[in-house]
Design brief:
The chain is an alpha/beta fold and 179 residues long. Helices cover 38% and strands 16% of the residues. The strands form three sheets. Strands 1-5-4-2-3 form a five-stranded parallel beta sheet. Strands 6-7 form a two-stranded antiparallel sheet. A two-stranded parallel ribbon has the order 8-9. The radius of gyration is 19 Å and the shape is globular.
Length: 179
């Protein structure tokens, strides 16, 4: 085997390994605690925005700006600590926090990820390059027992579940569901 062939083979193998690792990592981001909840999420998402799982966000929290794309009524009950409300129905370019850097890492979330995916698409179209949709969104965050805060920045166990039907996806028995 010639030196060029050997180099080509090693580069090709490295390329394949990189892509296999990327696919593996992305599939790990798509794992919900409750498999049925994961199946439900898959019915709604198109994966048009890269996803991030709740553990990755929790473990790297300070690296991200977090945007809550639910409606104000939902946000006021509770939200991920430090999340900035941008809404969904009334979202526009004016909803984007002033001074947000297009190269900054941004995580968007809603109840399960559908609305946040739509807002994530708009952010990408507006030139934001590192936008991630939180897989399972605030429901999965609460199921992992990660902290929620209220409008006074106090820890809370209250969670607006959009409506009664969607509340079944909250499996954490400590969470007080409202709709």
């Amino acid at each position: 085997m010639t030196r060029e062939n050997n180099l080509f083979l090693r580069v090709t193998l490295a390329f394949i390994m990189f892509h296999l690792m990327t696919i593996t990592l992305m599939s790990q981001d798509k794992i919900a605690q409750n498999a049925a909840f994961g199946d439900e999420i898959d019915k709604y998402l198109h994966y048009s925005v890269p996803i991030i799982n709740v553990s990755t966000l929790h473990n790297n929290f300070d690296e991200f700006i977090i945007l809550d794309t639910r409606e104000l009524e939902e946000y006021e009950v509770s939200h991920i600590p430090g999340a900035i409300y941008v809404g969904y129905d009334e979202f526009s370019e004016y909803s984007i926090p002033e001074g947000l850097n297009p190269d900054q890492k941004i995580v968007v979330y809603c109840s399960i990820g559908y609305r946040s995916e739509k807002i994530g698409e708009k952010l990408v179209a507006a030139g934001y390059k590192k936008v991630y949709n939180l897989y399972g969104s605030i429901f999965e965050w609460a199921n992992y027992d990660f902290p929620l805060e209220d409008m006074n920045h106090q820890k809370t166990l209250n969670l607006h579940t959009y409506n009664k039907a969607w509340s079944k996806w909250i499996s954490n028995p400590e969470i007080k569901k409202t709709w």
